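Dear Dr. H.,

I hope your travels went smoothly. While you were away I took the liberty of generating a structure for the chain from your last submission, since the lab meeting agenda had it listed for discussion. I wanted you to have the full record in hand beforehand rather than looking at slides cold. The sequence, exactly as received, is reproduced here:
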Amino acid sequence: MVASFVTPAANQILAKYRGKETPMPQALVSGAHPAWELACCYSYPHEDFCELELFEAITGQAGIVTR
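The corresponding predicted structure, in token form, is as follows:
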């Protein structure tokens, strides 16, 4: 499995864990709407919206994230 940290938000999260020298938790998701991947891997610089809002704009559905 390969993890990609191409978005500014992902790089900020990764930097936090690198600074602490602790492993960063990751999740494997199966069966999610394909728009989640499109939204989460959007790498064009953006500061005025988050990936969740991009998912909602693509699908017209509320993006719900649960733990």
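Two observations you may find useful: Residues 8-20 form the longest helix (13 residues). The chain has one domain: 8-59.

With kind regards,
E. W.
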